[in-house]
Amino acid sequence: MTHISTFEFPMKDLGGVTQMHINPPSSLPNFHGLTNEDPDTFLFEFEILCRGYDYCTNDQRLKAFPLTLKGAALRWFMSLGGNCIHGRT
User: What is the three-class DSSP state of 24?
Assistant: First the structure.
């Protein structure tokens, strides 16, 4: 049985954010939401990655964040509902 997702993307469009380049995508830390994962370590690694790519604004970091989520953490994020997360205006 194929399940088609009806989730809306939780983040409001961040139209003012410049194009972001993360090369290679495998350089991103990943968080799956597993009990053996330390969220503080993940967030520390995410912060270091953002600084390394000069993603200094909250909007830039917000745009990169969902790319790091996998499995249960990504399903949770996508279940938040459409446009419920807004960057700074």
Answer: coil
